[in-house]
Design brief:
The complex is a heterodimer of chains A (324) and B (443). With 324 residues, chain A is mainly alpha-helical. Chain A contains 15 helices and two strands. A two-stranded antiparallel ribbon of chain A has the order 1-2. Chain B has helices spanning 7-22, 51-67, 83-92, 107-112, 134-138, 162-167, 179-192, 207-217, 234-249, 256-261, 330-342, 344-350, 360-367, 372-390, 405-420, 426-442, and strands spanning 42-48, 72-78, 99-103, 141-142, 145-146, 149-150, 154-155, 157-161, 198-200, 276-279, 285-286, 289-290, 296-300, 315-316, 319-323. Classes of the chains: A mainly alpha (324), B alpha+beta (443). Chain B: It comes from Streptomyces roseirectus.
């Protein structure tokens, strides 16, 4: 390395006059800086550290502490031990409503969403004219996904006099108000989630592009049908991607908030049928002034998500095939 | 937590933000207005309302600033949704506004938690309350101290689609009417309209506007005097729900899906969508004017039609203006409160946008400029407040709602809905309601 060489040269240089000495010191300092010493890299990292400690780690620890207190945001908190956690599991029917709604939401929406994403990704993995346009069109709903505006549109579409019922009326079916019936409201949310399949689709598409062409050619020569090729080649080779999407989508689904908030006008109704966990947590903390209880709810959510993710990773050993 | 923003409180606010961002959400405080946050030179004032109310406030405040150039005001405003969520977060983060519009339903909670400043010492000096009645000021008084000045008289009235009623050949009921009259005309509406229109929106889960009045007619209150218990009996609640079950059965009231859709959404109100002609929701003709083209009229909540029934209607304070305890500018805030209470220009600017003005003088000032519907609205409110003032068998005004009241109101709504959707019987749901309400009030 050139720097090391120069260093040696400087060290071995004979006959040092005072000015040479100063020159050498300067050079040494410059070299030291070049090797990554000094304080200034930390300056550039500082905003990230401030963010990490100030906005993530400290608040997380604080919320862990608050989960053992009675804190109403307005007056100082009072230590109550595990009372919040006990209340959750023994004395809060709405908590169980929200757990029920959230699990149903996760269990139904994630497989549907991933199935659709994979199906569309396979359709879009072809050389046809204007494929870029199609890909963009299918991805678009995901870009708009988290937006409040889309949730508002959803409300209009599935309301009693909405587009969906107009559509049904073409076939002579008399619709109902899907959003305001406790039996169907959650399914409109699930449909919204499934419709936003763009992100896993793009990841599937990237995965499909990586699959080796020669394997398919060989299979085709051997007379394997498209269905066989899908189940014997595509799906097994794609399992790492499927796994990645499953993990991310489950975590995402657990945290869903905006559509439930907007579609139910913040109420989680009708009859708590759309009271997703995050919405309940938000209501408790910011509306009902029970930030201690909300913090406990948040930690339970954290542990549940961590648990699901761990189970996913353990189970993955049995069905995910890595190329080696 | 002094007026300075402590490090801890900043982190607290950050905690809130983290919860929000960790959820991957967009909890942006929506609505217009300039940025929040307190600065030393400006007095921060915040309110919720419609666009018309925003414009009126701004116009009035401009006049105030002309007269008081030294008091600079930073205005923040938005819709009701999220207003108190944001306020709670601001208080926790040490950046509460100096002056705020307060809800009569929440004033006790915030006063008792030490968020609001008592302003009794300013009365008669910077705070001119000439013409305010004692009952009216009670709505801003908690534990004997004044925490907010009411902006107007609030009464509970039914809003009636008068043109729709006349089109069916029906007449507007008399003001002295009872629950049977309501049932009769509502059933009549359904018949005469050939099943197209129900009579009155489902009031079974509607709290302030009707159930509380029904309970008062029976000599009971919604909350006990100390605010630690419910003030009515399971019998009263069951009788109430049976009335509304009968209303739904006879199509006097719409089915559950319509009621459910209108929850927190005025645009889906049964009168607004043309599915009923009577509504308990005052917002249909409220602070923002009318949101339907129908010609409207107003009626008091029906009276009890059983022996020993009392006057159930009452008068409260519309919205309040309150100063916050951590503010360094309480004296200035009080000047603004006084300005809105007494200044002619301000009164004219605000019209009925914050309720029927609280003083005789103010009502006379705006009377000439009112439109026809505003006049009907004011006449009906006048009628109710006079009737209440004259009544000998009326209970004292309801106690300020305790903490958790809004959760209980929501529980009542959802419980009535559970019955209406056929998911629970009246008796079982009433049991659940009392259980859960007790849990909320003792929390």
């Amino acid at each position: 390395m050139t720097t090391a060489k120069t260093d040696e040269v400087v060290k071995e240089s004979p006959a040092a006059t005072p000015s040479d000495q100063r020159e050498r010191d300067r050079q040494r300092r410059r070299l030291a800086r070049k090797r990554g010493g000094g304080w200034w890299p930390y300056l550039f990292l500082a905003p990230w550290f401030v963010g990490l400690f100030g906005l993530t780690i400290y608040p997380m620890l604080d919320s862990l502490y608050l989960s053992f207190t009675d804190f109403d945001l307005l007056t100082p908190e009072k230590w109550v031990g595990t009372a919040n956690y006990e209340r959750m599991f023994t004395d809060d029917p709405v908590f169980w409503d929200s757990v029920h709604a959230t699990l149903l939401y996760v269990v139904v929406s994630v497989p549907l969403k991933l199935g659709l994403a994979l199906a569309v990704a396979m359709l879009l993995n072809r050389d046809i004219k204007g494929i870029g346009l199609y890909r963009a069109a299918f991805y678009l709903p995901s870009l708009l996904g988290g937006a409040v505006a889309i949730a508002i549109v959803w409300r209009q579409v599935f309301g009693g006099d909405g587009l969906f019922n107009d559509f049904l009326s073409w076939f002579g079916i008399k619709g109902q108000d899907w959003i305001s019936s406790p039996d169907t409201a959650l399914y409109t949310l699930i449909l919204l989630a499934v419709w936003q399949f763009g992100t896993p689709m793009v990841i599937f598409l990237a995965g499909l592009k990586q699959l080796p062409k020669d394997v398919y050619e060989a299979a085709e020569i051997d007379g394997a049908s498209p269905v066989t090729r899908f189940f014997k080649i595509t799906l097994p080779l794609l399992t790492p991607i499927v796994f990645f999407n499953v993990v991310l989508q489950i975590i995402d689904a657990f945290k869903t908030f905006t559509p439930a908030f907007v579609i139910s006008n913040g109420s989680g109704g009708p009859l708590n049928s759309t009271m997703l966990y995050s919405l309940y947590l938000y209501k408790k903390g910011f509306t009902d002034l029970q930030m201690g209880y909300a913090s406990a709810l948040a930690w339970v959510l954290f542990l549940v998500i961590a648990g699901f993710t761990a189970v996913n990773f353990i189970a993955s050993r049995y069905w995910v095939h890595y190329d080696d | 937590m002094g007026h300075e923003i402590s490090r801890r409180s900043i982190f607290r606010a950050a905690s809130g933000i983290t919860v929000a961002t960790a959820l991957g959400t967009t909890l942006s405080a929506c609505g217009g207005g300039t940025g929040a946050g307190s600065s030393n030179s400006k007095l921060t004032m915040t309110w919720w309302g419609s666009d018309q109310r925003h414009a009126a406030y701004k116009k009035a405040l401009a006049t105030f600033q002309q007269d008081n150039p030294k008091i600079k005001i930073q205005e923040t405003y938005q819709g009701y949704d999220g207003y108190f969520d944001k306020f709670n977060t601001n208080v926790a983060g040490g950046s509460a506004p100096d002056l705020m519009q307060m809800d009569t339903g929440l004033v006790a909670q915030y006063a008792r938690k030490g968020v609001l400043a008592p302003i009794d010492e300013y009365v008669g000096k910077d705070l001119d309350l000439t013409g305010f009645s004692k009952t009216l000021l009670a709505s801003g008084t908690v534990d004997g101290k004044l925490y907010g000045v009411p902006s107007g008289i609030g009464v509970n009235q039914l809003t009636v689609n008068r043109s729709g009623l006349e089109a069916l050949g029906l007449k507007l009921p008399e003001r002295e009417w009872n629950w049977n009259d309501l049932k009769a005309i509502a059933q009549e509406v359904y018949k005469k309209s050939g099943g197209k229109t129900y009579g009155v929106d489902d009031g079974g889960g509607s709290t302030l506007q009707c159930f509380e009045i029904f309970a008062r007619e029976k000599g009971q209150q919604f909350f006990s005097d100390d605010g630690k218990k419910l003030g009515f009996t399971p019998d009263t609640l069951q009788e109430w729900w049976e009335f509304w079950a009968e209303m739904r059965k006879t199509n006097a009231s719409p089915p559950a899906a319509i009621t459910s859709a209108a929850h927190n959404d005025l645009t889906k109100n049964a009168v607004v969508i043309g599915k009923a002609l009577f509504t308990f929701d005052s917002g249909v003709y409220g602070a923002g004017g009318s949101i339907t083209d129908a010609q409207l009229d107003f009626l008091p909540t029906p009276q009890g039609n059983w022996s020993g029934a009392r006057e159930g209607n009452f008068v409260n304070g519309g919205v309040l203006l309150s100063a916050t305890k951590t503010s360094k500018r309480i004296a200035d805030s009080v000047k603004i409160i006084s300005f809105f209470a007494q200044n002619d220009t301000a009164i004219k600017d605000m019209q009925l946008l914050r309720g029927i003005p609280p003083t005789e003088k103010a009502r006379n000032l705006i009377a000439a400029g009112l439109n026809a519907t505003d006049k009907l609205n004011m006449a009906s409110a006048d009628y109710i407040s006079q009737r209440v003032a004259k009544a000998t068998n009326v209970l004292p005004n309801p106690v300020p709602p305790p903490q958790g009241a809004d959760q209980i109101w929501d529980l009542l709504f959802q419980s009535n809905l559970a019955v209406a959707f056929g998911k629970a019987t009246i008796t079982s749901q009433s049991g659940k309601f009392f259980d859960q309400a007790a849990g909320i009030l003792s929390a």
